Amino acid sequence: xxxxxxxxxxxxxxxxxxxxxxxxxxxxxxxxxxxxxxxxxxxxxxxxxxxxxxxxxxxxxxxxxxxxxxxxxxxxxxxxxxxxxxxxxxxxxxxxxxxxxxxxxxxxxxxxxxxxxxxxxxxxxxxxxxxxxxxxxxxxxxxxxxxxxxxxxxxxxxxxxxxxxxxxxxxxxxxxxxxxxxxxxxxxxxxxxxxxxxxxxxxxxxxxxxxxxxxxxxxxxxxxxxxxxxxxxxxxxxxxxxxxxxxxxxxxxxxxxxxxxxxxxxxxxxxxxxxxxxxxxxxxxxxxxxxxxxxxxxxxxxxxxxxxxxxxxxxxxxxxxxxxxxxxxxxxxxxxxxxxxxxxxxxxxxxxxxxxxxxxxxxxxxxxxxxxxxxxxxxxxxxxxxxxxxxxxxxxxxxxxxxxxxxxxxxxxxxxxxx
Length: 419
Ligand code: COS
Known about the structure:
The chain is an alpha+beta fold. Helices cover 50% and strands 15% of the residues. It contains 12 helices and 10 strands. The protein binds coenzyme a persulfide. Coenzyme a persulfide binds next to α8 and α12.
C-alpha cells in the first residue's frame, strides 16, 4: 500500500520513534489487515492480536522499564495509536484506552504499591484495563456522577454503574470515579478507586496466554454488564460496569480523596491527545487507500486522480493531515514535558475528529459505489471515524474547553435590573 511521507516528522521524531512506527506498520500489514474486515463484521474482539501486541510491548510503550514498560515517551505511544488506526481503529483504541485511560492515572496518581501491583500488569499487556467516568446521567457533565462510595469500617462500598466503557468486558483492572461525600459549598466530593474483576472472555484469554491474571484479588460485587453493539469500533469492547455493594479496600483509593474529578480531567487531556492521533491515523489510512484507488480507477479513459476535482480535494486532504500532525505531536510533547496541555489536547482532538469524519466521507465518495461496499476498507473507516466527534469529550465539549482558554469562564446570566 502507498505510505504517506511527511517532512513534519523530521521536526518531532527521533530514529527510535521511526523504528517503533515501522514495527507497528509491519505488524499491522501482516496481522491486522487479513482479519480487519472479519472482526468488524462479527464484532469479534481480536484476542490473538492482543497477545501479539503484548509480545511487541505495545501496551507499555510510554511507561518506565521498572513498571514493565518500554521506557519511551508520550509521542511514541501517540505514534502507536496513529499507526494502528490507519489499518484498524478497533485495535488502536484497545491499546490507546489501556495506556492513556487505565494505566496513565495509576502511573500519575498511584502509590508505589499500586504501580507495582497494577501498572506493571497493564504495561506488560498481561491484562487489559479501563477507565470508568461516564454514567447514564454523567456524559458531557462529568461531575454529574451518581456512583457512590461509602466508608465502612476498613473499606469502601461502591454502588452505581458506568456506561460505554472501552475494554469493560475484556479488562481486569479498572479506575473509576465515585462520590465520597459533600463539600461545604454543597458540591460533590469525587474520588477515584482501583477495582478488579475477571475478564469476560476467560477461555479466549487462557487460549492466547494474556488477559487474565489469577492473583488480582477480584473486587466482590463488581462486574461488567451489557456489551454494546456499535456503528463503528466494532472489534473493540464497550460495556457497562456495575457496582453492587462492591467492597474496595481503603488502599485502593487512587490519588487523594476529593481529587477524583480533577485527576480524571487530567487523564482525559492525555486521552484526547491519543484520540487525536487515532483520528489523524484514520484520515491518513483513508488517504492512502484513496490514492491507490484513484490511481487505478479509469473513467472516461482517464485515471480518476487526474481529474482536477479529485486532485484539489486530495491536496486539501494532505494539507490538513500535515496541519493535524503539528497539533497532535505538539500536544504530545507538552504532556511529556509535564506542561499544561488541556487547550492543545482539545484543539488537536477537535481538529482531527472533524478531519477524520470529512476525510473518510470523501474516501467513500471517491471510491464511488465500491466505497459503499465492504470490499474496500473505507466504509469501515467512515463508521469508525464518527466516534471521534463523540468519545473522550464531544466536539462541543472541546469547543467549551478552548473557548474558556480564550475568553475565561462563562458568566451567569445577568439578573434583570442588575445590568
Ligand atoms: N486538568 C486539571 N483540572 C481540571 C481540568 C483539567 N483538564 N479541567 C477542569 N479542572 C478543574 C478545574 O480547574 C476546577 O477546579 P477548581 O474547582 O479548583 O476551580 C474543577 O476541575 C472543575 O472544573 P470546571 O468548573 O471546568 O468543571 P465543569 O463541570 O464545568 O466541567 C468540562 C468542565 C465540561 C470541560 C468537563 O466536564 C468535561 O471535560 N466533560 C466531558 C467529559 C468527557 O470527556 N467524557 C467522555 C469520557 S470518555 S473516556
